[in-house]
Amino acid sequence: NSFYRSNTIPAPNLLQLAPTERYANYYNMNHSKRGLALIFNHEFFTVPHLKARCGTNVDCENLIITLKTLGFEVNDYHNLTHKDLVKQLEKASEMDHSEHDCLVVAVLSHGELGLLYAHDTAYKADSLWHYFTADRCQSLAGKPKLFFIQACQGDKLDPGVSLKERTETDGHPFPTFRIPTQADFLIAYSTIPGYYSWRNTSRGSWFMQALCSELSANGTRYDILTLLTFVCQRVALDFESNTPDNIAMHQQKQIPCITTMLTRLVKFPPKNGIV
């Protein structure tokens, strides 16, 4: 009897069909649904030293529209305590994602190196994806799980350096443009470890502006790593702080930081007639 018990076929919930062929170049994005997108938007905090994040609701609304256009079912949450944030992550991890292409989680908040803030306390950033590992959320095993984090990772500033164009224009001197000193070095953070992340109080954060613009313009055209490279380009070249009354914060630059453990390319083809 022990022989037969040790050689029984594993239970279905322990062994399942791969959602994508083993050596496919692209993830399978042909499920009946694009998938779930969770947005945790934090504007106000009870932590004494944290100020209100004016402009974050602009980011949230832009991201909702952008992700819905790509076919996601979007759930947005505002100013959750850490306990309630964890409840929503656990709820999502316990869902059946069998008919979903992928998962997106976005956090818009204050942060420090390795930490993010809920309404009432700090928590480790890596705890966000802890709930969606293949062993914990089997219906997402082998599927892309994308995390976008708009938050500071410290208080360092990047003054940038000036570069000259390689070619003259109409006989005029070489024009110059500025790039962050940390550029050219891929979960998707708005800035690199240790550095400040910029946000405009009326237009929203640099990173979310660039991310939404790129996803809206080319979301069904390019794979996500190509898109994020162009997001980095937009943030690096198109934005610069303008605080002439505060010279220390004036004319500062920023570069996002992309960490990838993807095993194939992620591309969002039009879903259910949505282009």
Any overview of this molecule?
The structure is a single chain. Helix 2 (56-69) links the parallel strand 1 (33-41) and strand 2. With 275 residues, this protein is an alpha/beta fold. Residues 1-13 and 181-186 have low confidence and may be disordered. A six-stranded mixed β-sheet has the order 2-1-3-7-10-13, covered by helices on one side. A three-stranded antiparallel β-sheet has the order 4-5-6, with no helix packed on it. The chain contains six helices and 13 strands.
Protein traits:
275 residues, six-stranded mixed beta sheet, three-stranded antiparallel beta sheet, disordered N terminus, alpha/beta, 20% strand, globular
What's the quick description here?
The chain is an alpha/beta fold and 275 residues long. Helices cover 23% and strands 20% of the residues.
Helix and strand topology:
Blueprint: H1 2-6, E1 33-41, H2 56-69, E2 73-78, H3 82-93, E3 100-108, E4 111-112, E5 115-117, E6 122-124, H4 127-130, E7 145-150, E8 161-164, E9 176-179, E10 188-189, E11 199-200, E12 204-205, H5 206-218, H6 224-238, E13 257-258
Parallel strand pairs: 1-2, 1-3, 3-7, 7-10
Antiparallel strand pairs: 4-5, 5-6, 8-9, 10-13, 11-12
Helix pairs in contact: 2-5, 5-6
